[in-house]
Design a protein that fits this description.
This protein is α/β, with parallel strands linked by helices. Helix 1 (about 15-30) runs parallel beside helix 2 (about 45-55). The protein has helices spanning about 15-30, 45-55, 65-70, 85-95, 110-120, 140-150, 155-160, 170-175; strands spanning about 5, 35-40, 60-65, 80-85, 100-105, 130-135, 165. Helix content is about 45%, strand content about 15%. The protein is globular and about 45 Å long. The longest helix is centred in the N-terminal third of the chain and has 16 residues, at about 15-30.
């Protein structure tokens, strides 16, 4: 993996471990010579992951919509800051620049970006590994809900396995390195409708 996109919160959350692990994620990516692609902001966990990578000589590419750069949220010290017009362009550019996806703790935006990438993988639009860094159990309930989707017949187990999870960045990167995307096929047929 040459570059990984990281989705995460624009705030720090309630636990200091979130900020610590965001910074450590950036450090780890830089030390492994994996470029960071992220939302381009200087605030919250977004700023922490960028700062961790930058402090250790990593490549950091931010992708920021112009309407957010006008609010002075852009990180000034990045390797490259790409300005786009819309949120849709932002997600597409981040996808184009990355070989894998990691979600750190965050809110609605983080989940929206994460699940769009998992859905694209499910549809066979990419074969990138997609993972949750489950810092201090942050994603436990989400993972339980994904199991409920399987149990209730709305998600196939093979697609559930596309969403990787670990509680350390090293463990998650190992799973991502070993990831094999399921063979994409047409999963809705005349016989199943």
């Amino acid at each position: 993996m040459k570059r990984i996109v990281v989705y995460c919160g624009s705030s720090f959350g309630t636990e200091t471990v979130y900020q610590e692990q965001a910074y450590a994620t950036g450090v780890t990516l830089a030390r492994l010579d994996i470029g960071l692609v992220y939302g381009g902001a200087r605030v919250g966990l977004m700023g922490a992951v960028a700062d961790g990578a930058l402090a250790h000589g990593g490549e950091v590419i931010g992708v920021l919509p112009r309407f957010l750069s006008g609010k002075e949220l852009g990180h000034a010290g990045l390797t490259d800051l790409i300005l786009v017009d819309t949120m849709h362009e932002r997600k597409l550019k981040m996808h184009e620049l990355s070989d894998g996806v990691i979600a750190l703790p965050g809110g609605f935006g983080t989940l929206e970006e994460l699940f769009e990438m998992v859905t694209w993988g499910q549809l066979g639009l990419h074969k990138k590994p997609v993972g949750l860094l489950n810092v201090a159990g942050f994603y436990d309930e989400l993972l339980a809900f994904v199991q409920t989707m399987v149990d209730k017949g709305f998600l196939k187990e093979i697609n559930q396995q596309m969403l990787l999870s670990a509680d350390t960045i090293e463990g998650l990167l190992e799973k991502m390195r070993n990831y094999q995307a399921p063979a994409a096929g047409k999963w809705i047929t005349k016989e199943t409708t």
